[in-house]
Amino acid sequence: MADTPDTLKSMLIGGQWIAQEVSPFESINPATGARNYLISAASDAQVDQAVDTAWQAQRQAAWRNMLPHQRAAILRRIADGMDANASVLARLQMIENGKVWAECKAQVASAAATFRYYAGVCETLCAEVTPPRGNYLSMTHYEPYGVVVAITPWNSPLTMEAQKVAPALAAGNAVILKPSEVTSSPALVLGRIALEAGLPPGILNVVTGLGSTVGRRLVEHPGVRMVSFTGGTASGRAIAHAAAEKLMPVALELGGKSPHIVFADADQDAAIDGVIGGIFEGSGQSCVAGSRLYVQRSIAESFIAKLVARAGQLKVGLPDAEGAQMGPIASFAHRGRIESMVETARREGAQVLTGGERPDGAALSAGAFYRPTVLGGLSREAQAVREEIFGPVLCALTFDDEDDLVEQANDSAYGLASGIWTADYRRAWRVAGRLEAGSVWINTYKQLSISTPFGGFKQSGIGREKGASGLRLYQQSKGIYFGM
Ligand code: NAD
User: Which GO terms describe its molecular function (predicted)?
Assistant: First the structure.
């Protein structure tokens, strides 16, 4: 089936493309302001239908009795389908969230690799025979929850959706994927690819709509047994409340305000590259963006001056323009939020060292563009230092010694990621152990791997996705005893 208009105007429920029952919403290209297409919003009845259908499909022998290596073969075919549709998927993400073309292509490849990785995990992960304490054989056996809901944000839909859907299917669940309203279409194409790969109908359903209506109803639905969510901390908290009412497990990957640390002995050129990529790639719309820069005081002035010069040279452009390093912000509303936070920072005494405004020129005036921005002179109490901006805005701060650094870096509600640049491996190890963060990068940044568990400390989340253990997130264990 072609992906437009039919796939993109429908939802995938029970292997059927279902037309909307309530008013659709617009998908807007943030680089141009033009309407891409209309996306369906699921009605309450359609949400209920998706859950019922998923349950029925999950109970069918075709899926329940499918052996791990057979499920793995389907996951590999989905990966092949993603590769075969790489340009379609990358383009849909690009016109919906404005990421530059090279990053969109790389994210399709990463998403396909995730399906292959979980195919491998699926057919090699073992159950356990546990040590007996009597005359019996005892085992830990792992079973799917049944119906799992995956809810994703707009900044990296391709990779986030693969990261949830692949392990949840490998674990034997039926999945209802609810993509962000800003980036609905890659999920719909993934649904089409999964059907073509031989996934039984109803095992992957894609339901589109707003978080406050469709997302909420899915989370609260009694037929949903587990929710895997990536998004903002406020939404994650609302989901955790709803899950508490049902006593339902949730995995929450939430926001961040990650410290990026440069010691005086660091390779400064490499550190500048790392800091620039860490905050400005994807226009700063990354949960792990290194948005709080801490530079040791003795090198701070010269380091920040060089960094600011580099930031000012970054090429902001249409996402498919030759050499563009930063595309637009993903939506006009989100650019408005970023602008308002930079205004607050100015009122709180920030020096805008570069950026702090929209780029000049007619070519970009119709899009939601914003220049790479570095703010200096802020206190640790400033909103821009404490709250996630989720945009191309870096707060440059200084520290004196390790204790001062650790105290400042950990003075945050968040704890998702962090980076350390130093030539001293003993110091790197010491500081890594003291940082309250789910990931620590040493002399590198934003290095992500599907084989390494990922998640947040504190208000950055609950649970760990990725890695072989990421499959267990979508299963519950059962103790089985054979009397001897
Ligand atoms: P968001 O929280 O507004 O929305 C995320 C998803 O949740 C969307 O699909 C939305 O429709 C849905 N949703 C919102 N409220 C809901 C509710 N009450 N019940 C059910 N579903 C609901 O986030 P966003 O603006 O799309 O994404 C940006 C945020 O995501 C940032 O805070 C960023 O840090 C975070 N994020 C975290 C990670 C991570 O791995 N930790 C990765 C990417 C993005």
Answer: betaine-aldehyde dehydrogenase (NAD+) activity
79 lies in some domain: yes
Residues 6 or more apart whose CB falls under 8 angstroms from that of 31 comprise: 95, 98, 318, 319, 327, 328, 367, 368, 369
**Phi and psi torsions of 394, nearest 5°:** -110, 130
Which residue's CA is minimally distant from atom 10 of ligand 1? 211
Ligand 1 and 96: CB distance under 6 A: no
Kindly write down the DSSP assignment for every residue of 100-163, as one continuous string.
Answer: -HHHHHHHHHHHHHHHHHHHHHHHH---EEEPPSSSEEEEEEEEE-SEEEEE--SSSHHHHHHH
Cα of 209 vs centre of ligand 1, distance in Å, is: 13
Helix (H) or strand (E) holding 237: helix 233-246
pTM of the model: 0.97
**153 CA → ligand 1 middle, Å:** 5
* Residue nearest (by alpha carbon) to ligand 1 atom 14: 211
Q: Are 422 and 443 in contact (CB under 8 A)?
A: yes
Q: What residues are labeled active site?
A: 253
Atom 20, ligand 1: residue with shortest CA distance: 215
Whether 461 is in the pocket of ligand 1, judged by its Cβ within 6 Å, is yes
Residue range of the domain that includes 173:
8-254+461-483
* Residue 235 near ligand 1, beta carbon < 6 Å: yes
Q: Are residues 334 and 208 in the same domain?
A: no
Question: 253: Cβ below 6 Å to ligand 1?
Answer: yes
Domain total in the chain: 2
Atom of ligand 1 nearest to the CA of 238: 18
Do 208 and 283 belong together in one domain?
no
CATH (domain of 413): 3.40.309.10
Ligand 1 binding pocket includes 258 (Cβ within 6 Å):
no
pLDDT in tens, the chain (484 residues): 445 545 566 899 999 999 877 888 899 999 999 999 888 899 999 999 999 999 999 999 999 999 999 999 999 999 999 999 999 999 999 999 999 999 999 999 999 999 999 999 999 999 999 999 999 999 999 999 999 999 999 999 999 999 999 999 999 999 999 999 999 999 999 999 999 999 999 999 999 999 999 999 999 999 999 999 999 999 999 999 999 999 999 999 999 999 999 999 999 999 999 999 999 999 999 999 999 999 999 999 999 999 999 999 999 999 999 999 999 999 999 999 999 999 999 999 999 999 999 999 898 999 999 999 999 999 999 999 999 999 999 999 999 999 999 999 999 999 999 999 999 999 999 999 999 999 999 999 999 999 999 999 999 999 999 999 999 999 999 999 999 9
- 149 Cβ below 6 A of ligand 1: no
Is 1 domain-assigned? no
In whole angstroms, how far apart are CA 238 and each of 211, 388, 463? 11, 18, 16
